Amino acid sequence: MMRDAEQVIYVVDDDEAMRDSMNWLLEGEGYAVACFESGEHFLAAYRDDMRGCLVLDVRMPEMSGLELHEHLADRGSALPVIFVTGHGDVPMAVAALQRGACDFIEKPFHNEDLLARIRRALTLECENATRRKRSDAIAQRLETLTQREREVMDLVVAGKLNKQIADSLEISMKTVEAHRARVMDKMGARTLAELVRAVMETTKAE
To answer: What integer is the mean pLDDT of 53-70?
Structure first.
């Protein structure tokens, strides 16, 4: 299982007994836990750089779990959300999955079932965080390219040969080779395949 020391399991539930029970269970498994009694309290504490996952009750007074999920989606939150539902809430939980939630679990649940879902959510969040860091690093490298280097790189990635690039940009082959070498160096790519993958990754992120 992929797990990061920065990850925290955020529990949002208006039932104090449920919060205490989850806190006891999760801390006993060695997780960092933060509990909130309402969606409003969680939003007040929310930061864009939060890592981990959110275990969220569907039915709460004032702001429901579904409404909190929508608020977080509007803010671009990357936290995986596991909804905790009663039997009658399953259709709502399924709809939430379609809107980007990670998982849901029905009450009453077995502790091992919840822990398994949390482990999957934390692994997913860790993988996504790694991809975001890589995409950010690639984007920063792209910013170091001159306009001409970017033009050469785009044509290289499009599969054009040096001669075709030279003709297209009306520059010499030697100039193309020099720009191409600088692009590879600035992008930290050892091969053309690595360069193509890096550019495709930033395109997906956009």
So the answer is: 92
